[in-house]
Amino acid sequence: MAAPVKSHPVEGPASAVQNLTIGKALNQGLRAAMEADDKVIVMGEDVGKLGGVFRITDGLQKDFGEQRVLDTPLAESGIIGTAVGLAVRGFRPVCEIQFEGFIFPGFDQISSQLAKLHYRTQGKVKVPVVIRVPYGGGIGAVEHHSESPESLFAHIAGLKVVSCSNPVDAYWMIQQAIASDDPILFFEPKRLYHSGALKAPVDPSATPDPLFASRVVRQGGTDAAATVVAYGPSVKVCLDAAAAAAEEGRSLEVIDLRALSPLDLGPVFESVRRTGRLITVSEAQSESSITSEIAARVQQECFYSLEAPVLRVAGFDTPYPPAKLEEHFLPDLDRVLHAVDRALDW
Amino acid sequence: MFDPYVADIDAEALRGLYRDMVLVRRGDRESNAMQRQGQLGIWVPLLGQEAAQIGSGRALRPQDMAFPSYREHGVAYTRGVDFRELLGIFRCTDHSGWDFKAHGFHPYTIVIGNQVLNATGYAMGQKFEGKVGDDDGEATIVYFGDGATSQGDVHEGFVWAAVYDAPVVFFCQNNQWAISEPTERQSRLPLYQRARGYGFPGIRVDGNDVLACLAVTRWALDECRHGNGPVLIEAFTYRMDAHTTTDDPTRYRLSDELEVWKHKDPIERVRAHLARTGGADTAFFEAVQAEADSFAAELRDFCFNMPDPPPERVFANVYAEPSPQLDAQREEYLAYLSGFAEAGEH
Q: How confident is residue B345, by pLDDT bands cut at 50, 70 and 90?
C-alpha cells in the first residue's frame, strides 16, 4: 500500500491584495511556500545574499536562513543532483538555474535521476523537486541567455513542465508546483519579470486554477475567426495581436497553455471546433517541439473541424541569433497577424 | 589507529564475515551462471570485491544510508536486501524492487557517478535535520568505481560535500579496471590523494582485507556522524571477473595479472586465518559451504520461476500524481491487446 501522500494546502497569508510584477509575485509565492512547509528549501547560484541575478529570491535568505536558502557552488549538475538526494531525504528543493542556457550540465541528473526515480522504484521514491528556469529572449543578451529549451524537457517522461505568463499565475503556480509530488520544470518569462505594464493585483485569499490547466485568456465569442495558442512570454504577444485584430473587426480567441507537459488541450479542441483555425505561437524552434505536439493532437481530435492547416509562428530552426537580430527571430504581433491572415485566406 | 575499530571482532564475528563473503560470492557465481543459461539478461559480477563490500557494509548502522552503483550485491546483502530482489534488475522484469527506506539502501544507479551527487544531497539533508554530531548520528556512504572518479558528478559531489560538511563517506572500489581501461586512464596520482585537493581526508585501504575495510569504514562513518565528514576511502581491490557478462577481459588484460590477484583472494585469506588460528574447524567450513549451496539452489529456483511483469506495468508509476494521458494510453493499449486474445479464441 502506498504511503499517504503528504499534501500541502496552498494558502496565502491573509494579507492584502498587492499589485505585483511577475518577478515580485514569484518572490511572494516562494515566500508563501516556505512559510507553509519548512521542508521547502531554495538552492542555486547567487540566490542568497544577492537574491538571484533577477532578484526573484530577494530577501528569502535573510528571513529563512542559510540552511533554507543555499548559495550553492557553481555547478548545475551538483544543484540538481544534490536536490534529488535532498528530496529522497524528505525535503522539497526549489532549484534556480540562472539562465536556461546553463541548464545542460544538469541535464543528465534531470533525465537520468529526477525523471526516473519514481518509475524505477515503482513509486517507492518520490522526488518533489522544482527547477525554476528563466527563459526566452528579447533582453539584448549574449549567447546562452535567451533560449527556449522547454520542449526538450517536455519530451522526457517523468517530468512535468509549466510556464507562467502573468503575475497571478506566477504567484500560484510556483506554490502549486512546490506542493506537487512530481518533479517540475518551471519556466519563467525572464523579459517580463519586471514589466510594470503586466503588474496585476494578486489576492492571496483567492482560489487558484489548477496547475495543469490551460486557460482561455481572451474569449473570441461566437464569431471568433481563429484560435491562437501560446505560453509564457508569447501570451502577451498574442493578446496584443488579438487587440490589434479586434480593431480591424476580427476576433481572435487566445489560450494560455500554462502546462506544457502534460498538455491540457481540452479548451483548445473546444475552441478549434468553433473557429476551424489554429495558430500556435512560441519562441522555441518549431521543429519537434511542443507546438508540433499540439498540431498533431489537434489534427487528430478536430480533423473535420479544421478549415486550414495548423500554422505555427515560432523561433526559426537556428541557434538563437546575436541579439541585434533577435527581433527577426522572436514572434511578434505582425508575424502572428500574418499567420492569422494566411489561415483565413487558406 | 584503526585497530580499536575492530577490537570487538572475535572468532565468532570473523566467522560471520567469512560466511557473508562466501554466500555473496555463491550468489554472484550462481547469477553469472544463470545469465549464461539465458535466465538473466546480463549480470554484473562482484567476484574479488567481497571484502570491500562486506567489510564496508557491515560497518553501517541501521540509521545510515547507502547509495550503490550497480555492482554492490554484497552491500545490498549487508543491508538486508534479499539477493533474490536483485535479480529482477538483471532479468529485466523491473528496474529495482526493494524498499529503500526500510533497508537504508538506495536503488541501484546505472549512469556512472550520478549517485555520488544524490548521496551528497541526502547527507546534506541529514545534517540540515540535525542528525549529525554525536555517537548516534547518521551518516551516508556512497559506492562508485575507479572509472567514475573521472565523472564531473563525482567531482561535484566532493565539492558539495566539502562545502556543506556533509556526513558522507565516498567509498571508491578501485578494482583496477573501468571495463577495458586501467586506472592510469583515469588518474595520474593514486585516487585517494584526490581528497586533499577538496580539503577532506582520503585513505587507501586493502580492499581484499575484510577487517581493514570494516575498520576504516567504521572510522570514516564515525567521523561523519560526529560532523567531521566527508571522507574518501579508496578500497584497493581487483575485479576478478569481467565488467559484465557481455565483456571479454582477455582482449585487454593478461591472465598473469589475474593469477597474482588470486593469491590475494579476500575469502581465502580469512579462511586460512580462521583455520590456522583455530577460529573455525572443518565442520564450520563444510556447513557454510552447504548453506551456500542451498542458498544458490533457492536463488536458482526463484529466478527460473520469476513471472514476467504484466503489460500495464509499462505505464505504472511514471508520476506520483494521476496522469489521465497515461491512463488513456494504457487503456487503449490493453484494449488493443485484448483484441488479439479474442481473435485467438477462434
A: low
